[in-house]
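Researcher: Here's the sequence for the chain we discussed earlier.
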Amino acid sequence: MSPRPRTRIQRKNMQAILDAALEVFSQHGFRGATLDQIAEQAGLSKPNLLYYFASKEAIHVTLLTGLMDTWLDPLRELDPAGDPVEEILGYIRRKLEMSRDFPRESRLFANEVLQGAPRMQAAIVEQLKPLVDQKAGTIRDWIAAGRIAALDPHHLIFTIWATTQHYADFDIQVRLVLGQDDPIASAEAHLTTFFRRALTPGG
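Model: Thanks. This is the structure I predict for it:
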């Protein structure tokens, strides 16, 4: 028998819990967060929260599972038939936009990985790794055809992650050092120049 569809109120409460948990987890990490903090942030009682999620871990896994799919979308868009440099620069722009629009989600994932990814190892191996390997193969083909400079494909992807997600994970530091409320535009200009030079054969 199929489960009964959730009511509007149930869907609203579940979303309130997930929104609250994202805020709490991104600030305190999994270990520092408590169900009491999440319930208070969501405006619900702890027993009401436990009606929807059996544990703090269940909430955390639900958030991370949804985040993984969203996080992979920009890499999925890398088109083997496109211009290699422009495809990679487009990926960089999409990652910067995610850092601007989803900083809490980025910090949530970063905290999970820093703790050894105890709740996400399977997803990393089963979802992230095959996609990264596939796109690294595309980059390797572009290199073999002489269309971009010879760079290690996996480490190129890691470098893109490091330089784009920095603006989410270290948002306050970036803003204070630059004295800018929105550093993404200048970051995009810099990274576009930097990677275009690095990717251009003989550049």
